[in-house]
Amino acid sequence: MKPYFSVVVPVYRSEKNLSELYARIKISLEELNANFELILVEDCGGDDSWRVIQELSEQDSRVIGIRFTKNYGQHAAIICGIAEATGEWIITLDDDLEQRPEDIHLLYEKVRQGYDLVYGIYEERSHAKWRNMTSHIARKLFNKAIPNLNYEYTSFRIMHEKIGKALVQFESPFPFVDGYLAWVTNNYSTVTVEHGVRKHGVSNYSFSKLLKHTINILVSFSDIPLKFASWMGLVSFITGFMWLIVILFRKLFIGIPIAGYASIIAGIVLFGGIQLFVLGIFGEYLGRINYKSTKKPLYIVLKTTKDN
């Protein structure tokens, strides 16, 4: 029988969370009296998560485990799970228990009002202050890059299968699920849910990973960096031209000697640095063109629990 719900969970270093996560999802969806499948995509975190997934699959045939050959990232894992999903409604949530399975019914009640996509958003986040601050800045930038993007997006979502399957058609080597969803549909809404507390481990998103994620999205989904490079080039040209006029005026009308070695080197370093920065931006775009032209797969599956 085709499941009504498909729950997709990207798994990374969560061996201590998985059993509780499964139990809570099971109770939550059985209370809705609906058939479901739980798809756990193990993203090679290096711990014992795959063993736990195999044990859960042996206990309950509704649990489907997928293991990657290497670490491909959270968004690749979500897209993989969605590609394998067979339910009419697809639910995604994280593996750290910060998103409470008990709130799934709130998202479902909202989506039944006629929406294609509903996000579970938080009135207050339980992350560290630096994480909330950097996320706020990143979201502001993402909204500039992707105008239709919901500022309050989270990885706790429910979507119709037609919307979910559309994500699989994107071929970017730098996936961003919510950016794709913003292109696929405007018929979305949100519902406020409680932000749970992580019981085991720490967040896998360090500052460097968040910075890399932000740069990937800005370059992959917009031309904002190119526009920034153009404005930097224009400003540096105007600054250099005005500097030249000042030097010539002082030489011709005031008789002050032209600035010496130190100022010349400073000017070369300044404008040379700007040129290299602009070239670096162009290089980021060219690199992404090259990545896409190679047509490398977004992920490669090593094994599934169905193989056993």
Automatic annotation (TrEMBL):
The chain crosses the membrane at residues 228-249, 261-282. It comes from the Bacteria. CDD domains: DPM1_like_bac (cd04187). One of its GO terms (biological process) is lipopolysaccharide biosynthetic process. One of its GO terms (cellular component) is plasma membrane. The keyword Transmembrane helix applies. GO terms for molecular function: undecaprenyl-phosphate 4-deoxy-4-formamido-L-arabinose transferase activity. Keywords: Cell membrane, Glycosyltransferase, Lipopolysaccharide biosynthesis, Membrane, Transferase, Transmembrane, Transmembrane helix. The keyword Glycosyltransferase applies. Residues 6-160 form the Glycosyltransferase 2-like domain. Pfam families: Glycos_transf_2 (PF00535). This is Dolichol-phosphate mannosyltransferase/undecaprenyl-phosphate 4-deoxy-4-formamido-L-arabinose transferase. It comes from Paenibacillus aquistagni. The lineage of its organism: Bacteria, Bacillati, Bacillota, Bacilli, Bacillales.
